[in-house]
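Aim 2 progress update. The chain analyzed this quarter is reproduced below.
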Amino acid sequence: MKVLPSPRSIRNTKQWDEFQKALSTGVKRQVEEIRIPSVQVIAVSGNEPPASKQYQNAIAVLYGIAYGLKMGLKFGKLPRPKGYFDFRVGALESLWWSTESLLDISNPKTLRWQAYLMSPAFVNRKLVDQARSAAQAKHPAIPYDSATLTTVNEGRSVQVLHVGPWDKEEPTIAQLHEYIAAHGLTVNGKHHEIYISDPRRVKPEKLKTVIRLPVKSATKS
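Predicted structure tokens:
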């Protein structure tokens, strides 16, 4: 099982890039187990489908604040905290779940999600608020106040790369569940997707998405 270091131990840009790669662009099409430490994120929550204005607004909010932090710190417009290093803004991620037993992304009545971008450990709420205020001044129509700085705790997980349209993920998800069953595991968290490709620039059949499920050992009866 691959074990990642705590983000708090990351001291430079290279280490941050390696950490992100292990969780996104470095994931293969074969199922792998990984143990993920607690990760700090800038997040927005909602309850409507991915094509909704609510979800699209969330994306705008997240990237507005994240790039505000990156560029503000890099060029001295924001005070650099202890441990600062220049960092790459990563891929959009989302946790998906339902108020019912089965996840149905097309049903807004039962759908819930948390969209987020990973944030280095040196970022604090004060910096996020400063970046939020600067972004809000430029784009007052975007609901930047919907974002929060929080943590995601997944721990032991299985993940795999899906290549193709998002509505054709079922066989890839089945791979995860087959691995989970074969290794005496059970799902222990929310359905997680990481959107490596930009759908505005990549054809549907070439879209790359990491799919992850937190797991634990199944309880024996």
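The chain has two domains: 1-38+154-221, 40-152. Helices lie at 13-23, 53-74, 125-138, 170-182. These observations will guide the mutagenesis experiments scheduled for the next reporting period.
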